[in-house]
Description:
The chain folds into two domains: about 5-50, no CATH class; about 75-100 and about 110-375, Zn-dependent exopeptidases (Aminopeptidase, 3-Layer(aba) Sandwich), CATH 3.40.630.40. It is about 30% helix and about 15% strand. It contains nine helices and 13 strands. Helix 2 (about 20-30) runs antiparallel to helix 3 (about 35-45), helix 6 (about 205-220) packs parallel to helix 9 (about 360-375) and helix 8 crosses helix 9 (about 360-375). The protein is globular, with a radius of gyration of 24 Å. InterPro entries: Spore_II_P. Keywords: Signal.
Amino acid sequence: xxxxxxxxxxxxxxxxxxxxxxxxxxxxxxxxxxxxxxxxxxxxxxxxxxxxxxxxxxxxxxxxxxxxxxxxxxxxxxxxxxxxxxxxxxxxxxxxxxxxxxxxxxxxxxxxxxxxxxxxxxxxxxxxxxxxxxxxxxxxxxxxxxxxxxxxxxxxxxxxxxxxxxxxxxxxxxxxxxxxxxxxxxxxxxxxxxxxxxxxxxxxxxxxxxxxxxxxxxxxxxxxxxxxxxxxxxxxxxxxxxxxxxxxxxxxxxxxxxxxxxxxxxxxxxxxxxxxxxxxxxxxxxxxxxxxxxxxxxxxxxxxxxxxxxxxxxxxxxxxxxxxxxxxxxxxxxxxxxxxxxxxxxxxxxxxxxxxxxxxxxxxxxxxxxxxxxxxxxxxx
Length: 381
């Protein structure tokens, strides 16, 4: 080490112990390997500031999606650690830039011990446990009688009114599990080592949400798209994060009537074969979609207005099936929560599954959004 570097090292030590963060950084910036020294010096003096530097980040851990009991509104001091998009009222921003287009492979790469994929078009149900709509169906997975659900879904009007061509946002699209992703090749094989998750917004749920928001905005339905990766790095707290994000948007934009949490499903046979829900629309392979409407169970899941959300779900289901027959699987009405207590227009929608391709999923998102735009009174050709 040169005499100059020795002097600077001495200065760094003195600065750290003397309490001078600025001096510590100035000295460390001149030393070899200064990136880690800068972080070390800053950590000694200001840990909260050091956390904001680009330290290595871990991968998200995938767990099975389940139900979650309602939580109290978080105080500002208890807000989650900021993600790529803000999650507090003061920080809510305009929609993020459109995810960049990523070219898709034309064929699967060489995979050691590949898994199999099979395509299946899921049909609508009938009989006990299903409520038939003008087009499409609702599957009753609750203890309520079918007649109870039928009465809820046949209400003449939606539980909210959307203003077309409004200068204020009417719809919010977001993703509790934003890192969920799809196949990137059309071949019916998958890589067992791939977790079907990525932070690349051109390949994960953000790509689907961006297409849906684009369609709605083009139709005159003012829509915001939040691209926060709520499930990274902590997957298990993702619904808490998306709750805070949604609440912040609703506080800043009281005009929002509809909140869509866009996910993808994961369907597998007992032998590990992945199933891709698939239909054909205008000669093109398209992922099937499924709406989930939660139901109050009187204890752990408190959704006092669940019938209103279900009414919206049934209306959207019917609009999709009338416009693009075969696009949907039956609406699932079950004891789920999914933050659906925040508005009477809050729904979760599964766009395809982890065996579908990104292209199939984005196409499905487009058709689902077109039907929603028509339902809400938008202008769709």
